[in-house]
Amino acid sequence: MSASTPPSDAEMFRLANDLRIACQRIARRVRMESTIGVAPHQFTVLTRVHNEGPQTPTHLAAGERVSLPSMTRTVNYLVEQGYALRMPHPDDRRQVLVHLTDAGEDLILQTIAQRDSWMRAHIEGLDDEQLRLLRQAADLLLEVSGV
Questions:
Q1: At 35, is the pLDDT very low, low, confident or very high (cuts 50, 70, 90)?
Q2: Whether residue 32 has pLDDT greater than 60
Q3: How many whole angstroms separate alpha carbon 8 and alpha carbon 20?
């Protein structure tokens, strides 16, 4: 692809494929290299509660696109490990809200720090021009991802 001619359909599909594969590989490596004490899907539930506040298991299941029984198993594990707790819903006593414990908050902060350290270790050897280009790519990827 040159700056003067628009990319062909084949070039755009190749770029889309390469970009998808690169993003998937990085995401998988970051998840697997630096999750402490919980599986990646369990960590995702913790971060959802951390970012969005206490939620019902039904809401968590919908957000993660899993069945309620699957989410119940995940929540049970997180509660058993001391990372989360169930509290009565203030408006509907038939439901519970999943809250984080201090241990859950600590786990999130520790895992994020390890993930950032892992990534930093993999970009530290890049030269200034590569780092500038990577900064631009990161900004563009954030825009493309809808964040």
A1: low
A2: yes
A3: 18
Rounded to 5 degrees, φ, ψ at 85 are -145, 155
Q: CA-CA distance, 147 to 17, in Å (whole number)?
A: 21
Domain that holds residue 84: 11-144
Does the reported pTM lie above 0.90?
A: no
Distances (CA, A) of 132 to 83, 138, 142: 38, 10, 16
Residue 1 lies in a domain: no
Q: Which helix (H) or strand (E) holds 107?
A: helix 102-123
Task: Look up tokens 């006593």; give the residue.
Answer: 93
Question: How many structural domains is the chain composed of?
Answer: 1
> What would the mean pLDDT of 38-44 be, rounded to a whole number?
90
Q: What are phi and psi of 48, to 5 degrees?
A: -65, -45
Residue 113: give its domain's CATH number: 1.10.10.10
Q: Is residue 62 part of a domain?
A: yes
Residue 29 pLDDT level (bands cut at 50, 70, 90): confident
